[in-house]
Every structure is written in C-alpha cells, then in structure tokens.
Design brief:
Blueprint: H1 3-9, H2 24-35, E1 46-51, H3 54-63, H4 69-72, E2 75-82, H5 84-93, H6 103-126, E3 130-134, H7 141-148, E4 154-163, H8 177-180, H9 188-209, H10 212-215, H11 218-226, H12 234-240
Antiparallel strand pairs: 1-2, 2-4, 3-4
Helix pairs in contact: 2-6
Amino acid sequence: MNNTIEKIKDHRSIRQYLDKDVPDELIDEIIKSAQAMPNSINGQQTSVIVVRDKAKREKLAELVGNQPYVAKAPVFLVFVMDFYRTYLAGEKTGFNQVIHEDIEGILAGATDVGIALGASVIAAESLGLGIVPIGGIRQNPEEVIELLGLPEYTFPMVGLVVGYPADESHKKPRVPFESFKHNESYDKKAVEDSIDVYDEKMSKYLKEIGREEQEVNWSVFTSRIYQSVYYPKVKAATIKQGLKTK
C-alpha cells in the first residue's frame, strides 16, 4: 500500500502534547486540505475557527467537559456548520433560504463538516502532528457560540486538538472488518456475530492500558452512554441559532 493509506490506517488519538508551537503555515495547510474536500452542492457550509489564545483554549477545555489537552496543545480547531454564508447569498439574490429549517440541511451540513474533519486529521498526521477530535464542543453549545462569536444559522459541530505528540499513544482496535464492509446489502448476521468478538478484543485492549474497570468492553461502554442523550443542550441551542429539524 502507499504511504497515504498506511498513515490513515495507523491513526491514533493523542492526548499528551509537547510544549511546542505549530507554525501558522502548517495549520493553513491542514485547513486548506479541509476546504478542498467535496461538499453538498458546493454550498461550502463549513467554516473552521483557529483558537490559539491560551485563555480561550482554557475556557474551551472547561466547556467541552474538562478535557485538559484542549488547553495543553497549542492549537484547537473548531469546525462550524455554516449556513450563514449561504443565507447571505440568498439575501444578495433575493431567494429565501429554508434549508436550515429542515433535517436535510442539518444532515448535509453535518456530513460536510465530517468530511472536512477527516481531511484535517489525515493532513495533520501526515505532517507529524497529533490530533484528537472533540465532540464535547457540543456539551455547552450556547457558551461556545458566544465565546466564538458565531452568527445565526451556524453551529459548532466538532473540535480538533492539534499539536506535537508527547507519546505515540495506543492504537484502539476496530470492529471486525467483516461487519464494517457489507456487500450489496446490510449483513445483519455479520454484525450480530461481531459483537462478542469485538467485546473480547476490546477487553484485552482495555486491560493493557489499565482502563478495563472503567469501560469493561465495547458493549458496556457504549450502552452506558447511549442510554441517554449525552449532550442534551444541543437541540435548544440549534433552535436558538435558527436551525431546525422539522
């Protein structure tokens, strides 16, 4: 396989960072890679906010659920679903934008942000940088929106910590490939058969890194989280931003 594929397959989340700055030109290359990705109707409904200010990163570290690496690493990127830009286009042309008032708009915007995030991860790791995505940017969305000055029709979807790794971290195992790849139609049996296999693999991995008591295995860990809506403030915040899911 080529170097790009090998780099992607060797991905791991980094939570320990060196006290070393990341040059602007590298951050720009990462964001240009994100911007180059495909997006729905070329609406380009994604924006990226670069946060370097230490006090702001410390506040964000608190808002995302007290995750210290957000403040520790030199750069934090916030990926924003951005229908404000397309709204301005409608204001210019006289067409009334309604896509932000339907679930289709949210799905399209979220997909585009995800594509941009993936490109950023690959670009950063190819430059020898470490990353960890932060879904906790949605834990206290209204405060994040205020802190970052986000206008109506936008929403902070995910963050990305960027810095030089202080260690290599562990590579977390994934579900069996046979339950991830489906030929022609969804293979329910392959997924059902994979659960016990993956739980056993994750139990071994968690024991190796000393987290078996907290997480136990994949089924226990995900079930505990998914028995509730873990970021319950999202819906009210999206409505306040003018984004709806009718």
